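In this supplementary section we document a worked example of the pipeline. Step one takes a protein sequence of length 476 as its only input; no multiple sequence alignment statistics are reported here. Step two produces a three-dimensional model, which step three serialises into structure tokens for compact storage. The input and output of this example are shown verbatim.
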Amino acid sequence: MTQASYQTDKHVQKTRWWILVAVGLFTFMSTLDGTIVNIALPVISKDLRIPMSQAEWVVSLYLIIVCTFILFFGKLGDIFGKIKIFRLGAIFFIAGSLLSGIKVNLAFLLAARTLQAVGAAMTMATNNGIITEIFPNSERGKALGMIGSFVALGSIAGPGLGGVILTHLSWSYIFWLNVPVGIVAAVIGGLVLPKDITFSKSSLDKKGAFSFALGMLTLFGGIFLGQQVGFTAPLVLVLLVLGILSFVWFGYTEEHEQAPLLQFKLFKNPDFSVSLLCALLIFITNFFFNVVTPFYLENARHLPPSQTGYLLMILPVVQLVAAPLAGTASDKIGPKLITFIGLLLLLVSQVGYLLCNLYSPIWLFGVSIAIMGLGSGIFSSPNNSLIMGSVEQKDLGIAGSINSLSRNLGMVIGISTATTILFSAMSHAKGAWVTGYLPKQPEIFIYGMHVVFIISVIICLVTVILSGWRLIKKEK
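The serialised model returned by step three reads:
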């Protein structure tokens, strides 16, 4: 059967927006759980009586596991059915969320987070493919734009929402929040999601799946461990070398496999590769913002957590409004111009952050946040449409998982890189090794913050140039 089968099925088309709600809710929760836990780490550390360096693995492990398995589940979705993999992932995610909130010890929490991350990877790997198959071309940009809104809400709303929960409840409810919402989404999905009708006859690339997973676990495990114990530690060096060798093995395997896990031919399409690269770079800058902002607002500017949370919520609220509108506009006038405008706004927002210091009016930072939300919302919808609309139907599953992988890689790279840049710049300014905020020397932090946002401006400028080049090339 073909893609048209879904689009000519009257029952599926009648319930397609409810399908979007079910898929979108899991997309929101699985993305949210990569960011919401950050604000609870000090409480978890104290409650479980573990050092902060160990508590940080609650966040790091989740992101690493998602990146490790997302391509694998994308391929499984193509072979056995995207909706089947999505349903199973929803069950794993809800179970992992329930277990994560039970206070036992760190090992139990990390095991529960691993189960939760596996479920998140299964839903993230298949969400874009499901939406692309079900929605007609005339509505695809709007639908993918709404998925982009759920992603944006999840990736940015974490600190604000987490702060509100911790103000009134224990850290367990950060995870338990997913359970009732997940059950509602699962019930909706059970009622409206159709049976799978598109399957690939290709075999599973076991060597590619193993080498990629080994590379992700060892390379990023080594990076996060190196931030805590130093990059010259023997174990860290072994992990980093093993990670690099595993990715070399993965590349060799994919070039010689008949049905590879990652089809490099997809990257020959400039719409696919440029859009994917822009998504990766923008998520890196998003997490530069996530790392630096709490330090700036709460430590340097002495805003109370509640006010900080409300200020940060400007971004997802603006993005939530902008993304569907941008998706609709991209359906009418084409996604490339809309994407370019969104990236320009993101560049302006990073320049706004760069202008802020210890004495800047808070409204300047708030306006920059709003511009970032507007730019991110305008960018995400047409960019998703470009990625998913540039591949054949048989590759929708793997294309969707690559798209989700780029976002999660952006999170991992953004968190690790921003932290490294911030504290390295602060150490340079102080002339001594710095690993945290210095209350008596806020100007040291401001120097580090400016270095981080200079890098962020450069990254955004690269995306604007790439998008502008593609736009000019299209017009010619």
